[in-house]
Design goal:
- There is one protein chain.
- By secondary structure, the chain is mainly beta.
- The protein folds into two domains: 164 residues, no CATH class; 175 residues, no CATH class.
- Helix content is 14%, strand content 35%.
- The protein is built from five helices and 19 strands.
- Strands 1, 2, 3, 4, 5, 6, 7, 8, 9, 10, 17, 18 and 19 form a 13-stranded mixed beta sheet that branches. Strands 11-12-13-16-15-14 form a six-stranded antiparallel barrel.
- β15 and β16 form a beta hairpin.
- α3 crosses α5.
- The longest helix has 14 residues.
Length: 358
Protein backbone atom coordinates (compact mmCIF):
# COMPACT_ATOMS: atom_id res chain seq x y z
CA UNK A 1 0.00 0.00 0.00
CA UNK A 2 1.62 3.24 -1.12
CA UNK A 3 1.72 6.22 1.18
CA UNK A 4 -0.12 9.50 0.92
CA UNK A 5 1.60 12.24 -1.08
CA UNK A 6 1.61 15.99 -0.81
CA UNK A 7 1.35 18.68 -3.48
CA UNK A 8 2.73 22.18 -3.11
CA UNK A 9 1.38 24.76 -5.57
CA UNK A 10 4.22 27.30 -5.76
CA UNK A 11 2.24 30.11 -7.40
CA UNK A 12 -0.22 30.42 -4.52
CA UNK A 13 1.98 28.96 -1.74
CA UNK A 14 -0.94 26.74 -0.69
CA UNK A 15 0.02 23.32 0.69
CA UNK A 16 -2.42 20.46 0.49
CA UNK A 17 -2.48 16.68 0.46
CA UNK A 18 -4.21 14.25 -1.87
CA UNK A 19 -4.87 10.54 -1.83
CA UNK A 20 -3.47 8.47 -4.62
CA UNK A 21 -5.72 7.98 -7.63
CA UNK A 22 -7.66 4.73 -7.43
CA UNK A 23 -6.55 2.14 -9.96
CA UNK A 24 -9.46 1.56 -12.31
CA UNK A 25 -8.10 -1.74 -13.65
CA UNK A 26 -7.47 -4.15 -10.79
CA UNK A 27 -5.82 -6.64 -13.17
CA UNK A 28 -3.28 -4.12 -14.45
CA UNK A 29 -0.30 -5.92 -12.92
CA UNK A 30 -1.30 -9.11 -14.67
CA UNK A 31 -1.69 -7.30 -17.99
CA UNK A 32 1.69 -5.62 -17.56
CA UNK A 33 3.40 -8.87 -16.74
CA UNK A 34 1.97 -10.53 -19.81
CA UNK A 35 2.71 -7.60 -22.12
CA UNK A 36 6.27 -7.06 -20.85
CA UNK A 37 7.40 -10.35 -22.37
CA UNK A 38 6.87 -8.96 -25.88
CA UNK A 39 7.60 -5.26 -25.39
CA UNK A 40 11.03 -3.70 -25.71
CA UNK A 41 11.80 -1.33 -22.83
CA UNK A 42 14.73 1.10 -22.84
CA UNK A 43 17.00 1.60 -19.84
CA UNK A 44 19.86 3.66 -21.28
CA UNK A 45 20.27 7.29 -22.22
CA UNK A 46 17.44 8.78 -20.17
CA UNK A 47 18.91 9.31 -16.70
CA UNK A 48 19.51 12.59 -14.91
CA UNK A 49 17.99 15.21 -12.59
CA UNK A 50 16.31 17.65 -15.02
CA UNK A 51 14.46 17.01 -18.26
CA UNK A 52 12.75 19.13 -20.89
CA UNK A 53 8.95 19.25 -20.74
CA UNK A 54 7.87 18.67 -24.35
CA UNK A 55 4.40 19.76 -25.55
CA UNK A 56 2.78 18.47 -28.71
CA UNK A 57 5.80 16.26 -29.42
CA UNK A 58 8.02 19.11 -30.64
CA UNK A 59 7.77 22.20 -28.40
CA UNK A 60 9.86 22.71 -25.27
CA UNK A 61 7.67 24.58 -22.76
CA UNK A 62 9.57 23.98 -19.52
CA UNK A 63 11.33 21.42 -17.39
CA UNK A 64 10.65 18.57 -14.99
CA UNK A 65 13.30 18.20 -12.29
CA UNK A 66 13.77 15.75 -9.42
CA UNK A 67 15.69 16.07 -6.16
CA UNK A 68 15.94 13.75 -3.16
CA UNK A 69 16.16 14.63 0.51
CA UNK A 70 15.25 12.86 3.74
CA UNK A 71 13.68 9.92 1.96
CA UNK A 72 11.45 12.05 -0.27
CA UNK A 73 11.57 12.98 -3.94
CA UNK A 74 10.61 16.52 -4.88
CA UNK A 75 9.35 16.58 -8.48
CA UNK A 76 8.94 20.07 -9.97
CA UNK A 77 7.10 20.89 -13.16
CA UNK A 78 8.27 24.37 -14.26
CA UNK A 79 7.01 26.38 -17.24
CA UNK A 80 9.87 28.42 -18.70
CA UNK A 81 8.61 29.40 -22.17
CA UNK A 82 6.01 31.90 -23.39
CA UNK A 83 2.53 32.01 -21.88
CA UNK A 84 2.17 28.25 -21.47
CA UNK A 85 0.54 27.02 -18.26
CA UNK A 86 -0.19 23.66 -16.63
CA UNK A 87 -3.86 22.68 -16.36
CA UNK A 88 -3.43 19.01 -15.48
CA UNK A 89 -0.63 16.65 -14.50
CA UNK A 90 -0.05 12.93 -13.87
CA UNK A 91 2.99 11.29 -12.32
CA UNK A 92 4.03 7.68 -11.84
CA UNK A 93 7.14 6.35 -10.07
CA UNK A 94 8.25 2.74 -10.32
CA UNK A 95 11.22 0.44 -9.64
CA UNK A 96 11.18 -0.71 -13.28
CA UNK A 97 9.70 0.92 -16.44
CA UNK A 98 7.79 -2.27 -17.15
CA UNK A 99 5.74 -1.57 -14.03
CA UNK A 100 4.27 1.67 -15.42
CA UNK A 101 0.54 1.22 -16.05
CA UNK A 102 0.30 0.45 -19.76
CA UNK A 103 -1.83 -1.41 -22.24
CA UNK A 104 -0.75 -4.46 -24.22
CA UNK A 105 0.59 -2.22 -27.00
CA UNK A 106 3.00 -0.52 -24.59
CA UNK A 107 1.24 2.84 -24.37
CA UNK A 108 0.88 4.36 -20.89
CA UNK A 109 -2.50 4.32 -19.16
CA UNK A 110 -2.38 7.88 -17.84
CA UNK A 111 -5.70 7.52 -16.04
CA UNK A 112 -4.08 4.90 -13.83
CA UNK A 113 -1.11 7.03 -12.80
CA UNK A 114 -1.11 7.26 -9.02
CA UNK A 115 -0.27 10.93 -8.49
CA UNK A 116 -2.30 13.54 -10.30
CA UNK A 117 -3.86 16.97 -10.08
CA UNK A 118 -5.74 19.70 -11.93
CA UNK A 119 -4.52 23.30 -11.94
CA UNK A 120 -5.94 26.67 -12.95
CA UNK A 121 -3.13 27.70 -15.28
CA UNK A 122 -0.11 27.05 -13.03
CA UNK A 123 3.42 27.90 -14.09
CA UNK A 124 4.99 25.77 -11.37
CA UNK A 125 3.80 22.61 -9.60
CA UNK A 126 5.77 20.61 -7.06
CA UNK A 127 4.92 17.04 -6.03
CA UNK A 128 6.52 15.15 -3.13
CA UNK A 129 6.77 11.37 -3.42
CA UNK A 130 8.40 8.83 -1.09
CA UNK A 131 11.78 7.80 -2.49
CA UNK A 132 10.89 4.20 -1.77
CA UNK A 133 8.58 4.24 -4.81
CA UNK A 134 11.51 3.67 -7.19
CA UNK A 135 13.81 5.62 -9.49
CA UNK A 136 11.86 5.54 -12.76
CA UNK A 137 9.44 8.41 -13.49
CA UNK A 138 6.76 9.05 -16.10
CA UNK A 139 5.77 12.73 -15.87
CA UNK A 140 2.80 13.81 -17.99
CA UNK A 141 1.00 17.15 -18.19
CA UNK A 142 -1.68 18.96 -20.13
CA UNK A 143 -0.53 22.48 -20.94
CA UNK A 144 -2.30 25.48 -22.46
CA UNK A 145 -0.53 28.04 -24.65
CA UNK A 146 -2.42 30.95 -23.10
CA UNK A 147 -4.03 32.22 -26.31
CA UNK A 148 -7.67 33.42 -26.04
CA UNK A 149 -10.16 30.73 -27.03
CA UNK A 150 -13.25 33.01 -27.27
CA UNK A 151 -13.92 36.63 -28.33
CA UNK A 152 -14.59 37.45 -24.69
CA UNK A 153 -11.19 36.09 -23.64
CA UNK A 154 -9.57 38.06 -26.47
CA UNK A 155 -11.13 41.30 -25.25
CA UNK A 156 -10.16 40.51 -21.66
CA UNK A 157 -6.54 39.98 -22.79
CA UNK A 158 -6.23 43.44 -24.38
CA UNK A 159 -3.68 45.71 -22.67
CA UNK A 160 -4.98 48.63 -20.64
CA UNK A 161 -2.76 51.13 -22.45
CA UNK A 162 -0.50 51.23 -25.50
CA UNK A 163 1.93 53.59 -27.19
CA UNK A 164 1.45 54.36 -30.88
CA UNK A 165 2.89 56.47 -33.68
CA UNK A 166 1.12 57.72 -36.81
CA UNK A 167 2.64 57.70 -40.27
CA UNK A 168 1.13 58.01 -43.75
CA UNK A 169 -2.51 58.53 -44.74
CA UNK A 170 -4.15 56.04 -47.12
CA UNK A 171 -4.43 54.27 -49.43
CA UNK A 172 -6.53 51.66 -47.55
CA UNK A 173 -7.01 53.41 -44.18
CA UNK A 174 -7.37 56.94 -42.93
CA UNK A 175 -4.14 56.65 -40.95
CA UNK A 176 -1.38 54.08 -40.76
CA UNK A 177 -0.01 53.55 -37.27
CA UNK A 178 2.42 51.31 -35.37
CA UNK A 179 1.35 50.12 -31.92
CA UNK A 180 3.49 48.92 -29.02
CA UNK A 181 1.58 47.11 -26.31
CA UNK A 182 0.90 43.45 -25.53
CA UNK A 183 -1.04 41.49 -28.10
CA UNK A 184 -1.79 44.72 -30.02
CA UNK A 185 1.85 45.24 -30.94
CA UNK A 186 2.08 45.65 -34.71
CA UNK A 187 1.19 47.86 -37.68
CA UNK A 188 -2.42 48.79 -38.45
CA UNK A 189 -4.65 50.85 -40.65
CA UNK A 190 -6.66 53.06 -38.28
CA UNK A 191 -9.76 55.25 -38.42
CA UNK A 192 -10.50 58.51 -36.60
CA UNK A 193 -13.59 58.41 -34.39
CA UNK A 194 -14.03 61.96 -33.09
CA UNK A 195 -13.92 64.69 -35.73
CA UNK A 196 -14.02 67.42 -33.06
CA UNK A 197 -10.36 66.67 -32.32
CA UNK A 198 -7.27 66.42 -34.49
CA UNK A 199 -4.25 64.18 -34.82
CA UNK A 200 -1.15 64.78 -36.90
CA UNK A 201 0.99 62.55 -39.09
CA UNK A 202 4.37 61.39 -37.82
CA UNK A 203 3.38 61.93 -34.19
CA UNK A 204 3.76 59.55 -31.26
CA UNK A 205 1.46 59.15 -28.28
CA UNK A 206 2.18 57.32 -25.03
CA UNK A 207 -0.24 55.66 -22.65
CA UNK A 208 -3.33 55.68 -24.87
CA UNK A 209 -6.23 53.93 -23.13
CA UNK A 210 -7.51 50.79 -24.85
CA UNK A 211 -11.18 49.79 -25.19
CA UNK A 212 -12.76 47.16 -27.40
CA UNK A 213 -15.74 48.69 -29.18
CA UNK A 214 -17.84 45.74 -27.99
CA UNK A 215 -17.37 46.64 -24.32
CA UNK A 216 -18.61 49.57 -22.28
CA UNK A 217 -16.92 52.76 -23.45
CA UNK A 218 -16.15 55.90 -21.43
CA UNK A 219 -19.35 57.86 -20.99
CA UNK A 220 -19.66 61.01 -23.09
CA UNK A 221 -16.72 60.30 -25.36
CA UNK A 222 -18.79 59.40 -28.42
CA UNK A 223 -22.11 60.89 -29.55
CA UNK A 224 -23.60 57.57 -30.72
CA UNK A 225 -21.72 54.69 -29.05
CA UNK A 226 -24.72 52.42 -29.68
CA UNK A 227 -23.74 52.41 -33.36
CA UNK A 228 -20.40 50.69 -32.92
CA UNK A 229 -22.09 47.45 -33.97
CA UNK A 230 -22.75 49.10 -37.36
CA UNK A 231 -19.14 50.28 -37.58
CA UNK A 232 -17.83 46.81 -36.73
CA UNK A 233 -20.02 45.41 -39.49
CA UNK A 234 -18.46 47.80 -42.03
CA UNK A 235 -14.93 46.99 -40.84
CA UNK A 236 -15.57 43.33 -41.67
CA UNK A 237 -16.76 43.89 -45.23
CA UNK A 238 -13.41 44.67 -46.89
CA UNK A 239 -14.96 47.75 -48.42
CA UNK A 240 -12.06 49.93 -49.56
CA UNK A 241 -11.18 49.13 -53.18
CA UNK A 242 -14.50 47.45 -54.02
CA UNK A 243 -17.07 48.89 -56.42
CA UNK A 244 -20.30 50.66 -55.52
CA UNK A 245 -23.28 48.43 -56.41
CA UNK A 246 -25.03 51.50 -57.83
CA UNK A 247 -22.28 52.47 -60.23
CA UNK A 248 -20.88 55.34 -58.15
CA UNK A 249 -17.28 54.20 -58.51
CA UNK A 250 -14.81 52.52 -56.20
CA UNK A 251 -15.00 52.92 -52.43
CA UNK A 252 -12.06 54.85 -50.96
CA UNK A 253 -10.68 55.21 -47.47
CA UNK A 254 -12.30 58.66 -47.41
CA UNK A 255 -15.72 57.09 -48.05
CA UNK A 256 -15.35 54.66 -45.18
CA UNK A 257 -13.87 57.26 -42.82
CA UNK A 258 -16.74 59.64 -43.42
CA UNK A 259 -19.29 56.82 -42.98
CA UNK A 260 -17.72 55.96 -39.59
CA UNK A 261 -17.95 59.59 -38.49
CA UNK A 262 -21.52 59.74 -39.74
CA UNK A 263 -22.54 56.72 -37.66
CA UNK A 264 -20.91 57.50 -34.30
CA UNK A 265 -20.18 61.23 -34.40
CA UNK A 266 -21.96 64.51 -35.07
CA UNK A 267 -21.30 65.51 -38.67
CA UNK A 268 -21.88 69.19 -39.41
CA UNK A 269 -21.35 69.01 -43.17
CA UNK A 270 -23.21 66.09 -44.68
CA UNK A 271 -21.44 66.59 -48.01
CA UNK A 272 -18.05 66.12 -46.38
CA UNK A 273 -16.79 69.62 -47.09
CA UNK A 274 -14.14 70.85 -44.70
CA UNK A 275 -12.83 67.38 -43.82
CA UNK A 276 -9.49 65.94 -44.87
CA UNK A 277 -10.82 62.83 -46.55
CA UNK A 278 -8.86 62.61 -49.78
CA UNK A 279 -10.93 61.29 -52.67
CA UNK A 280 -14.47 60.53 -51.52
CA UNK A 281 -18.03 60.75 -52.74
CA UNK A 282 -21.03 61.74 -50.62
CA UNK A 283 -23.23 59.28 -52.54
CA UNK A 284 -20.91 56.36 -51.76
CA UNK A 285 -20.82 57.42 -48.12
CA UNK A 286 -24.61 57.25 -47.92
CA UNK A 287 -24.49 53.78 -49.52
CA UNK A 288 -22.18 52.60 -46.75
CA UNK A 289 -24.37 54.10 -44.02
CA UNK A 290 -27.44 52.44 -45.54
CA UNK A 291 -25.58 49.11 -45.83
CA UNK A 292 -24.55 49.23 -42.17
CA UNK A 293 -28.01 50.26 -41.00
CA UNK A 294 -29.69 47.47 -42.96
CA UNK A 295 -27.29 44.66 -42.07
CA UNK A 296 -25.20 45.57 -39.04
CA UNK A 297 -27.76 45.93 -36.28
CA UNK A 298 -26.59 43.76 -33.38
CA UNK A 299 -23.45 42.62 -35.20
CA UNK A 300 -20.93 41.14 -32.78
CA UNK A 301 -17.50 40.11 -34.11
CA UNK A 302 -16.62 36.48 -33.52
CA UNK A 303 -13.46 34.43 -33.78
CA UNK A 304 -11.73 35.27 -37.06
CA UNK A 305 -13.57 38.59 -37.45
CA UNK A 306 -12.21 42.08 -36.97
CA UNK A 307 -13.15 44.04 -33.87
CA UNK A 308 -12.67 47.78 -33.64
CA UNK A 309 -10.34 48.63 -30.75
CA UNK A 310 -10.37 52.25 -29.63
CA UNK A 311 -7.06 53.89 -28.73
CA UNK A 312 -7.77 57.01 -26.68
CA UNK A 313 -4.82 59.38 -26.12
CA UNK A 314 -5.06 62.50 -23.97
CA UNK A 315 -8.17 64.66 -24.22
CA UNK A 316 -6.75 66.98 -26.89
CA UNK A 317 -5.95 64.26 -29.45
CA UNK A 318 -8.43 62.48 -31.69
CA UNK A 319 -8.99 58.85 -30.65
CA UNK A 320 -8.45 56.13 -33.24
CA UNK A 321 -10.23 52.89 -34.05
CA UNK A 322 -7.99 49.97 -35.01
CA UNK A 323 -9.51 46.88 -36.69
CA UNK A 324 -7.89 43.94 -34.90
CA UNK A 325 -8.43 40.28 -35.87
CA UNK A 326 -9.90 38.17 -33.07
CA UNK A 327 -7.50 35.24 -32.96
CA UNK A 328 -9.00 32.35 -31.02
CA UNK A 329 -7.15 29.13 -30.37
CA UNK A 330 -7.95 26.07 -28.30
CA UNK A 331 -4.30 25.26 -27.76
CA UNK A 332 -4.18 22.61 -25.06
CA UNK A 333 -1.41 20.09 -25.70
CA UNK A 334 -0.29 16.93 -24.01
CA UNK A 335 3.24 17.11 -22.63
CA UNK A 336 5.84 14.64 -21.37
CA UNK A 337 9.14 14.95 -19.58
CA UNK A 338 11.74 13.99 -22.17
CA UNK A 339 13.40 10.61 -21.81
CA UNK A 340 13.19 7.05 -23.13
CA UNK A 341 10.22 6.15 -25.34
CA UNK A 342 7.43 3.89 -24.18
CA UNK A 343 7.45 0.81 -26.44
CA UNK A 344 4.00 1.58 -27.87
CA UNK A 345 3.11 3.75 -30.87
CA UNK A 346 2.56 6.94 -28.85
CA UNK A 347 5.32 9.49 -28.18
CA UNK A 348 5.04 9.13 -24.39
CA UNK A 349 8.34 9.04 -22.47
CA UNK A 350 9.83 8.15 -19.08
CA UNK A 351 13.14 8.78 -17.33
CA UNK A 352 15.31 7.61 -14.45
CA UNK A 353 16.34 9.88 -11.61
CA UNK A 354 20.12 9.92 -11.13
CA UNK A 355 21.77 12.72 -9.17
CA UNK A 356 25.23 11.42 -9.99
CA UNK A 357 26.09 10.60 -6.37
CA UNK A 358 25.95 6.83 -6.69
Amino acid sequence: MKKLFFVLMLGSMAFYSCDKQETADESINGVNAQASVELQWSYDGCSGESFNLIAGQNTVVGTVSVSEEAGMYTVTYEITEGDWAIVEWHLQVEEDPQDFPHNQSGNPKIGNFEFYGEEDGATSVTVQVPASEGTWFAAHAVVDCGAPSTPEEFVAALPETVDFCTSAQGPTAYLNISVDGGLLTGDYGAWCIDNDKSITLNSCHEGAAVYASTEELPEGLFEYPENFDLVNYLLNQGIVGTDSPNGLGTYTYGDLQFAIWYLIDDVENADGSGYSLGAFDAGRVQELVAMATANGEGFTPGCGDLVGVALIPNENVQPLLVPVPIECSDCEETAWAEGCDFPGNSWAMYFQFDDGND
